Every structure is written in structure tokens, then in C-alpha cells.
Amino acid sequence: MEANNFTSQTSSIESAFTARKLLTLREKFAAEEALDDRLAMEIIAEEIFGDEESGAFDDETIDRIIQKLFFKTRRRLGVLQPLLEDDCVTEIMVNGPEHIFAERQGKIQRWPLSFDSVEELTEIIRNIAGDVHREISEMNPIVDARLADGSRVNSVYSNVAVNGPILTVRKFSDKYMTMKDLTDNGTIAPEAAILLKTLVECGYNIFVSGGTSSGKTTLLNALAEAIPKEERVIVIEDSMELKLSTIENIVHMECRNASSSGKGSVTMSQLIKSSLRMRPDRIIVGEVRGAEVADMLQAMNTGHSGSMSTGHGNSVEGMLRRLEAMYLMAATMDMDAIRSQIAEGIDIMVHIEKIDGRRQITEITELIGYENGKFILNRLMDTVHNSRKTAGAAGSLIPTGNRIKNSRKIWLKGEKYANLLRQHGFIDG
Question: What are the two backbone dihedrals, phi and then psi, of residue 427, each rounded to the nearest 5 degrees?
Fold first, then answer.
């Protein structure tokens, strides 16, 4: 208890010192006609080391105070700016003013800098919301928005979040990973890459399942490379994340939340219905979370072969159960009818997981149909576990030996594709 009190007291002294210096520095900066970052840092260092009170702090604390003051005075988003500019950071989590965490290369680490008050953090959140013409307040305590670079932002006001305002930023790189990149880093096995690329080219409807930050969107981007260039693709997302730069004839649509007056909402279901009138060859739905799954499956079942989507699920079987539940949000139907719609609409299920900070495809399964109250699944590739008596290193994705049952689309596409999959043992001759 005494240690906690001492730490809290030291933090309060540091915050008070920083706040006082911040006021002084803003006055000095205002008097400078040509102030660049180098000169600003010199003025900050001179102000800190010239104050006798700075002797109460150790070198680490002094360095932290200097960094804080620099970002507070020279960067619009304060101490978050270096994290936003760091390409290695994929997620930023702010749990109140004093606790900031960042995910780098799959590992979550605490950021040494922090905000000095709830008010400072709230102002940063309001700046972000204001950039996209949104408002966050006690009357409107939750805001979802997108930064100019495409990063996705979720903010929760302090009247809802017990430990202060909460800010979560999911960053997206301008450079998306190709299928080769995913093969090189071990996310996908080479044979799996060949299989999935061929299935995309042949027009199979593919659904990718996985947990939060497991790499679903990254995989969807890589799969889209195989879409034939002459096809027209409609992309629908809740918040724009996909970077489909290889497709020329593309329409990209994004959902919209209602304004503060409750108007202007555009749902994913509305966009999917509208996309059917745009002469699409394929429809890609970034992620389904609710009733829109019914519209997505209708699109897949009405001639738009090669459509793709993703969803949150812990396994292929778990994802199928979630799709059933989401379909029920849209309509009250007999469960057999819902399951038949799912089985007819989706050809291939791909599951991806994040294991020890590393993303890995763990299963590729063909959804053959629905019969006697059960989905008929045909696992094409599965992960080797230590208990399984098969060749291959534990944790690697290998063919199960099962052949693709519904191979009609492959043969219609051409013998070249059939020969390739036959060579790798995925279809019979």
C-alpha cells in the first residue's frame, strides 16, 4: 500500500511539473517566428534542465517529461502521435489517461508516455471525432470513426467507461500483404496458397472465419489478387479496410452511422441490396456481424460466384452456428431452411487463428451441403496436432487426403485449373 501511495504521489508531482512547463513553453513558442521541431526540442530541454525542481526526477522521468512536452506542443494528437506514425504498431489501446498500450508484431506492450488528465485525453478524442464530423459527449458517449489514413477508431466517453475515456485505434497499412508474403511468413502453407488461389479464380464462394485481429482482412486482401482482371467487383464494408489495388473495375461502399440528429444511417443490408443493381460479377462483404448475413447469402445464391466475406468465429463449426444466429436476426425462418441457404451459398470455409502472436490458417473445409439436420463438411487441409499420427510438423497445415466433391466450377473454368489441383491431390482425374 505504501509503495502504491508513493508511486501515485510521484506521478502527481510529475504531472504538476509537466503542466506548469507546458504553459511556459506555449508562451515561449508563441513568441518564436520560425519554430521548427529542432528548435522546439532545444527550448524544451533548456526549460527543463534550467529548473532546479527537475533535480527531483531521475533521468528516465526527465526523458519522459521532455517527450511528453514535445508531443503535446508539436503534434495534434499529443503522445499518441508517435504510435500512429510507427508502421510496426497495429493497435493502440488507451484505457483512461494513464494507461496506453500498443500492439507491435503481435505483442501488446505498455507505452511509457501518458496523458496528464482526463480533460487532455477527452480533447484528443474530440479532435478525432471532429475530423469526421462526429460528436462525442454524455448524450452521445460512443463514437466509431475512421482517420484520414484509414485507421479505425472506437471511443467511449467517461460517463460510460468507469476508468476514464477509452480510445482504441486499429491501424491499417497502405501496403497490404500479398499471398507470397503470407506464404513467406508462415501464415499459409504453399499448397494451401495454390488451392485457395485456384478456388478464387474458379469462382468458389469463400468465407473466412477467425478471432479478433487474427488476420481475416489481410487474408481477404491476398485472396482478391486472384480475381480475374476483367471482372467487376463490389466491395461493402462497415469501415473501409480492404486495399484491393489489383482490381480495376471496382466499387467500394462503406456503411454510415446516423448523425447526432438520428438521420443519414446507411446499413450493410442496404448496401448489399443496392450492389445487386450494379451488375456485379463478385460481391465482397468485409465482415458480417448481424442481419446482413441474410442479404449476403442471397447474393451468393443468385449467380454471383466467387463472392467472399469474413466473420468472427472460433472454428468452422462455430462460425456456421454464428451464421445461423445472425440469419435469425433478419427473419424468422425454419432452421432447416436457414441452414440450406448457408450450405448453398458458401462453398469453402477458411479458418485463421492467432497463435502465440503469429497468424496461421488452421483449416480449409469444403461445405458440401446440408442433410438430416447437419452440415456436411469435407476437410481439405487441416492442422497437424501432436496427438495426430500423420506426417508433418505439429502446427503445420497439410492436406487431409480428401478430394473436392463439388468440382464442377473447376472443370468449367478449364482443364488447366483441374490439372493443377489434380497434381496436388485435391481432385480426382
Answer: -140, 160
Contact assessment for residue 318 and residue 185, using Cβ atoms and an 8 Å cutoff: no
Q: Which residues contact 206 (CB under 8 A, 6 or more apart)?
A: 196, 199, 200, 223, 308, 346, 347, 348, 349, 350
Q: Residue 25: which residues within 8 A CB-CB, separation 6 or more?
A: 43, 44, 47, 69, 73
Residue 197 and residue 217: Cα distance in Å, rounded? 16
Q: What average pLDDT does the segment 230-250 reach?
A: 89
Helix (H, G, I), strand (E, B) or coil at 144: strand
Helix (H) or strand (E) holding 293: helix 292-300
Question: Is 39 within 8 Å of 32 (Cβ atoms)?
Answer: yes
Record the pTM. Answer: 0.79
The pair phi, psi for residue 237, each rounded to 5°, is -140, 155
Q: Which residues pair with 251 in a beta bridge?
A: 234
Convert the pLDDT of each residue in 247-272 to its tens digit. 899 999 988 877 667 778 899 999 99
The amino acid present at 238, given as its one-letter code, is: D
